[in-house]
Amino acid sequence: MLTELAAHDNASDPEPFAGPDHPIRQLTRAVAFGKEWKPEHAERMSTLFNELAPEWSNDHVDATKAAPVRDALQRGDVPMAGNWLEVGSGTGAGARVLDAQVRSLVCTDLSAGMLSHAPDLAPRAQSDASALPFAGGAFDAVLLINMLLFPHEINRVLRPGGTVLWVNTLGDQTPIHLPPADVLDALPGKWAGTTARAGTGFWLTARRA
Ligand SMILES: C[S@@+](CC[C@H](N)C(=O)[O-])C[C@H]1O[C@@H](n2cnc3c(N)ncnc32)[C@H](O)[C@@H]1O
Known about the structure:
- By secondary structure, the protein is an alpha/beta fold.
- It has a single domain (2-208), classed as Vaccinia Virus protein VP39 (Rossmann fold, 3-Layer(aba) Sandwich), CATH 3.40.50.
- The chain has 7 helices and 8 strands.
- It has helices at 23-32, 39-60, 63-75, 93-98, 112-116, 151-157, 180-186; strands at 2-4, 83-87, 104-109, 124-126, 139-145, 158-168, 191-198, 201-208.
- The chain has an 8-stranded mixed sheet with strand order 1-7-8-6-5-2-3-4.
- A hairpin with a 2-residue loop joins strand 7 (191-198) and strand 8.
- The radius of gyration is 15 Å and the shape is globular.
- It binds S-adenosylmethionine.
- S-adenosylmethionine (SAM) binds next to helix 2.
């Protein structure tokens, strides 16, 4: 079941950017729905984001992009007192919002370059999200902002009853995009979600139904 809340006052449509034929869009869908993630995929992603890392925060981290995360913290019934993991944390877009608001936060990303340009707000670990280096059930919430969904790994590291917070900061124009209903379908088992538009994007919180 998916519940849609009213759009936040700051919500607006994104400029056209990445349509359904974008190659990363296709990879995002394939990974979420079970296509094998191969070493060459990881190599390509890591090379791409290592190159983008020095300018990433200037080009992609701002208040409009932060708006969906901020709104989810206010209206998404997320576990503020919990232990959080941010997957695909990049240069700290999520950490800058979550900092000092949640009990604990660990950030992980495939790209050492992206991690090296993140502020020192939370422990950072380099890892491929297809095989996360964390114990099962270790986290109360997992945040993904414009990040590929590896549903079985996210489900594994989340405690029973834990929350997935999925954010696309450019809505359906985000290259790494899945609509809320597809995120719920891709996660193993039955999940219920709440979604809303904020900034130029949207957020989804998902919990096992
Ligand atoms: C579009 S960027 C988003 C970064 C950050 N979340 C933000 O919103 O600014 C996607 C991030 O996912 C990371 N990434 C891609 N594939 C990954 C994987 N298999 N495991 C972990 N991180 C990955 C990239 O290195 C990159 O930092």
